[in-house]
Amino acid sequence: MSEKPTSDNDLQSKITELEEENTSLKKAASTLRMMGNIFNSLEEAVLVVTLDRKLLNINDAAIKMFGYSFEELTDHSTDVLHVDHDHFMAFGRIIQSAFDRGESANFEFRAKRKNGEPFPTEHTVTLLKGKKGEKLGIVSVVRDITERKRMEKELVESEEKYRNLFENGSDLLCIHDLEGYLLETNLSYKKQYGLGNEELNGLNIQAFIPDKYKSEFNQYLKRITQHGEDNGYLKVITKSGGEAILEYNNKLIYDHKGRPIAVQGTARDVTDRLIAEKTLQKSEKEFRDLFDNAPLGYVEYDRTGRITRVNQTDLDMLGYKREEVAGEFVWKFYVEKGEAQGEILAKLAGRLPPGRGLIRTCRRKDGSTVPVLVEDRLLLDGKKQIKGMRCTYQDITELHRTEKALRESERKFRLVTETIEDVFWISTSGVTEMLYVSPAYERIWGKSTKQLYESPRSFLETLHPEDLKPYLNIIDRFHAKGKAYDCEYRILLSNGDICWIQERGYPITNDQGDTVLMTGLCTDITERKKVEEQLRQTHKMEAIGNLAGGIAHEFNNVLGIILGNAELALDDVPDWNPARECLKEIRTASLRAREVVRQILSFARKTMRRLKPVKINTIVEESLKLVRASIPTMVDIQSNIPSEPKMILGDPTDIHQIVINLCTNASHAMRGTGGVLEVGISEVRLNEKEATHYEDVKPGDFLKLTVKDSGTGITPEVLEKVFEPYFTTKEFGEGTGMGLAVVYGLVKKCKGAIDIRSTVGEGTTIEILFPKIEEDAPTASTTEGELPKGNETILLVDDDASIVRMVSQMLERLGYCVEGMTDSVAALEGFRSNPDGFDLVITDTSMPKMSGDQLAAELIKVRENIPILLCTGHSDTIDEEKAKQMGIRGFAMKPLDKRKLARAVRMALDGR
Cα separation of 438 and 455, whole Å? Predict the structure, then answer.
């Protein structure tokens, strides 16, 4: 028995002091871990150096850059990082000079890796000062600039090559500004005009152009400014005073912001070539145009009927090569060979006149046939004697096929555009006239196509005001560049609904490349947007689950230490000691916190909690007591809770959390002004019509929990998002955005429904419906019974030394002999050295080096029948079922109080 302290105040003061020290230690440890993680996660190398230039600390990036280990560099001089001692001394002088000026140093220097390899670096060095301004050391951020130096060298070499090509090219090369003034020319340009650099540079190109062609040069400047490039011919005055024709190919030069700043290009004197080409083209043009490029097939044959000349059109029509046709009898290619031969020979003999509009059938090389319209004329020599015949052939099948194809194409076009879900449209380039719009427009927009034909831009009236200007900007860019576009926007329907539209537009150009028509598709993507939003919500909830699981795991360890030590202290403190009541409160709070952690894990989808009959009115009353102590006294809480039991299927912790969250939010809405917070429970019966007001609710009997405040209220825009995870209107640091999202999830788990109504300036009302049940809540047993004990030897493994000490004391007080270890690898080696020396192994799951389930698997390899109790606060890799499959006897969730620990140990030892 311990002696009673002389003063209760002294004991209370001591407890407060210990709690404050514990809080400070936790904060310091948390800060140290956070700073260490940030320091080592930096991508750039960081060196912390003392004033005498010894390395005090380095991060992982510096270890990787220089090739040394942490131990090889710390407490050693930075001399080893320099290529030689002279560099080391010069480095120090530069730093000192910068610090004397009160500046940070930023410069390039050659460094050396552990393997002796030198490499260029860039340093940013900052003086590290204490609280009183005293110099403590320096911090140097080091960047490896080897790649940058290599690229700079390649750039210099590339520029030199370009300069040689530029100066020595045989073509005329120049760069001029956007008004035609020369900025740079090569040697060929200077030779062409007999001028030097100082005479050419700054001279406008128009000085070399005859007056009558100067307007062409101005047109050239406009074209290249608009299109970014231009090529063609330009007439100039030569050094001798004559005229020459230059063929040029020029492009715009842009600055880093994409703005045109100059023109670069090449030119070649093609005067002689063009004169020769023009003469040749003139002599060949008539024949080429009339023969090879004729729209009709053309054939000439001699008096015997043998083909002497044929154009490409005819060859393409029949599928032959020129050499396969030349010299053959013309009637060979007719289906009606005999009839055609007699007729042709009669015409060549002068017995029949040449004909017009004669329809024949020709056979192609592949065996197919084609009907043709034939017109023939006699060929006469200088003496007016017949020397042959010339004929034209028109494939009339193609004309018929084209007509049929057009009719079929139009039919298919109508069939497709009038049955597809999308709106297909064709309009003039400026949407001044709507040429076609499919009937789907009436279904999606709810307006007639007739109205759109009459007023082509009337659809703009339906665009959401926020989307109208961005859409018009897209259309403006389309008209400017003539490129296809793809955009999304909202339209407002006549019934007030919003419909999402995806529009894809395409230009229809003429032969000159000018956009003359627009066409496109409009697709209703409202449902797709809903699916995308649901997917985003799913991803948010998955992120919440991962976060909740991680928090619960860390908190379970801390909670286990608090709970275990409180129970150990209760065993040592007599009933008369006032501290015993404090310890009981700590134990009670710890058990409640354990339930909260389990709720977090359930929310994170890590554990499943079964619903059971509970008295909701009792739980709400208890929760309001806590609410009263945590919210300002200017908020008046008015409760209307019935005294008789009201039963639902739920979880007490869930109901408690719902009430706390709703009341906290309501209190925040009345912060600064005060107000009334009303909380009530009532019975309601919903019919079919009333049930439709709530989500996923069927008609029946319900208990309605109402939380109403007289606060500031919620705007309609915010009201739509209040149940979204992470959404909050509170100031930074005041809210997580998780309160109502958690409430929503807990209500859904209880098969309930939630509804929220609010008016700005008048307050907010939240109603929650829980299905009512008639069963009584089970009465918890108040007798705990004697704790099971034993005398076996237990190996306890946990990486937290505090937990090892606490659990060891619990087990030893139950009669067991305990060997505690914080290293799972060392524990395995100890077990291997004495496998029969332990009756039970208790291990945590989450440990460095080797996890608990891995340790258990290795222990079973050593001794197959060793009882193992696996403890976890949260694990993604193993659960109770997997543990049993591995041969692990016991599986327990942290934190364990003394009673649960005693039972779990006894059951594992007894094989139950």
Answer: 16
Could you tell me the end-to-end alpha-carbon distance of the chain, in angstroms, rounded to an integer? 37
Tokens representing residue 186 in the block: 């090569």
CB neighbour list of residue 551: distance below 8 Å, 6 or more residues apart: 600
Q: Are the C-beta atoms of residues 686 and 696 closer than 8 Å to each other?
A: no
Of 363, 386, 365, 364, residue with least CA distance to 376? 386
- Name residue, tokens 């069963």: 775
Residue range 638-649, pLDDT digits in tens:
989 888 888 888
Q: Distances in Å between the alpha carbon of 193 and those of 220, 799, 860?
A: 21, 88, 96
Q: Which of 146, 895, 95 is nearest to 566 (CA)?
A: 895
How many Å apart are CA 135 and CA 717, to the nearest integer?
A: 55
What 3-state DSSP class applies to 329? strand
| Pairing mode of beta strands 105-112, 55-58 | unpaired
Tokens of 36: 């260490």
**3-state SS assignment for residue 37:** helix
Measured CA to CA, the distance from residue 248 to residue 340 in angstroms comes to 56
CB 336 within 8 A of CB 354: no
Rounded CA gap, 87 and 93, in Å? 10
- The whole-angstrom separation of Cα 435 and Cα 684 is 60
Q: Which of 666, 652, 680 is nearest to 746 (CA)?
A: 652
Rounded Cα–Cα distance for residues 260 and 178 (Å): 8
Provide the whole-model pTM. Answer: 0.35
Q: Which two tokens stand for residue 446?
A: 């709810």
- pLDDT digit string, tens, across residues 849-866: 898 889 989 999 999 889
Cα separation, 613 vs 776, in Å, equals 7
Dist CA 56 CA 74 (whole Å) = 5
ω into residue 895 within 30 of 0, thus cis?
A: yes
Q: How far is CA 11 from CA 14, 15, 116, in A?
A: 5, 6, 65
Taking only the tens place, the pLDDT of each residue in 118-132 is 999 988 888 887 777
Which residues on adjacent β-strands are paired with residue 309? 300
Q: Which long-range contacts (CB under 8 A, 24 or more apart) does 334-341 make?
A: 334/360, 334/361, 334/362, 334/363, 335/360, 335/361, 335/362, 335/363, 335/369, 336/360, 336/361, 341/305
- Round to whole Å and give the CA distance between 199 and 118: 49
Nearest residue to 62 (alpha-carbon basis) of 88, 35, 80: 80
At 358, the amino acid letter reads L
According to DSSP, residue 195 is labeled -
Pairing status of strand 840-844 against strand 868-872: parallel
Choose between 402 and 159: higher pLDDT.
402
User: How many CA atoms, within 13 angstroms, populate the side-chain half-sphere of residue 138?
Assistant: 23
- Confidence band for 192, pLDDT divided at 50, 70 and 90: low
- Nearest partner of 344 among 311, 373, 306, judged by Cα: 306
Assess contact for 905 and 896: CB atoms under 8 A: no
Residues 6+ apart with CB under 8 A from 341: 305, 329, 331
Q: How confident is the model at residue 364 (pLDDT cuts 50, 70, 90)?
A: very high
Report strand pairing: 55-58 vs 485-492.
unpaired
- The structure tokens listed for 84 are 């030689």
Please give the Cα distance from 261 to 860 (Å, whole number): 77
Locate 773 and state its tokens: 């049940």
DSSP-derived pairing of the beta strands 890-893 and 840-844: unpaired
Question: Can you list the positions of beta strands (E) in 618-724?
Answer: 635-640, 647-650, 675-686, 700-709
- Residues constituting the chain: 912
* Nearest CA among 418, 423, 420, 355 for reference residue 392: 355
- Phi, psi at residue 643, to the nearest 5°? -80, -30
Q: What are the distances in angstroms from CA 132 to CA 125, 136, 240?
A: 20, 11, 83
Q: Which of 254-258, 564-568, 887-891 has the lowest mean pLDDT?
A: 564-568
